[in-house]
Amino acid sequence: MKYVGLQSQIWKNNTRSVLLLIMFPLVLYGLTWLFFYIMSFVNQNEAVSMEAIGRNFLNTFPWITSGVILWFVIAWFSHSAMIRLATKSKPLERRENKRVYNLVENLSIAAGMKMPAINIIEDDSLNAFASGIDGRTYTITLSRGIINKLNDEELEAVIAHELTHIRNRDVRLLIISIVFVGIFSFVAETLLRSIRFASLGGRGRKSGSSAGVAIIVALVLAVIGYFVAVMIRFAISRKREYLADAGSAELTKNPRALASALRKVSNDPTIEAVKRADVAQMFIENPQLGLKKEHKSPFSSLFATHPPIEKRIAILEQF
């Protein structure tokens, strides 16, 4: 396997992640324009007017933008509480585990960053994740199993991995990508319910025909947008895991400790409390692997929240 230098890996992953993130609003606005384009064929027999399509799109643009901003604001300030509920995590006090606090504190000093809060999930499986959007909310969450079953060097490497996510603002990037996926999911679900309501309402054929077609077209485009956004989100998650692995190796000067930790994590990453796929992608390894078997297919890598752990280990062993 070709050697990948640390700085080269950081530059490549940062560039790709930014490009992937830019694609989200482009997909949203692109599908909105496509909706008006398709509906122009449905509603008129004469030649399609690109000027009218552009005018309709520009009239809708402020409303779409306002809705997205509002959605972002709500998600931005409530995500920490939602993550705690989704993982059933709770604060870990210093007096409860000085070993973990010392490791986090020493690594934070070495990285030149403020020490994040520490949460714990009462589960014997091995997993961890970082969350938060700023210095007040940055948190590292560890399972009881990963604390008890890793030695000091391995646990230090895992914590360094999560600190790198925080230092590189990975958690903020993932939250943005999750919000965009949520927008498409919400729109698709709303349109689907509108179709059901319209079919039960028994509206007049003439008045309901055009509206019904519009809803169906919008639903199809929203579903397409959802799947595109999901694939982009998964790609962002995969790229950032490689970068965090490299950051851990740089911070601890011991890449083989993280490789060893990942081997142990891969044997039992399942956290029973984690049911949401968007939260699952934040962990060092997908915590849902034991809840459902992954079916191998030529397209399975597109929908993977994490890169193959064997590949991550192989890259770490190159350092």
Please provide a written account of the structure.
With 319 residues, the protein is mostly helical. It has one domain (6-316). Helix content is 68%, strand content 5%. The chain has helices at 6-43, 50-87, 98-111, 144-149, 152-167, 170-201, 205-252, 255-267, 277-280, 309-316, and strands at 89-91, 117-121, 128-131, 139-143. Strands 1-2-4-3 form a four-stranded mixed sheet, with helices on both faces. A hairpin with a 7-residue loop joins strand 3 (128-131) and strand 4. Helix 2 (50-87) packs across helix 6 and helix 5 (152-167) crosses helix 8. The chain is elongated, with a radius of gyration of 23 Å.
Summing up helix and strand content along with how strands pair, one would put the structural category as: mainly alpha
Strand percent estimate: 5-15%
Strands, total number: 4
Low-confidence stretches: 203-207
Using only CA atoms, what is the Rg?
A: 23 Å
Net shape: elongated
**How many structurally independent domains?**
1
Instruction: Specify the helix fraction band.
Output: 55-70%
- In which order are the strands of the major sheet placed? 1-2-4-3
Distance between the termini: 12 Å
State the helix count: 10
Run of helices and strands: HHEHEEEHHHHHHH
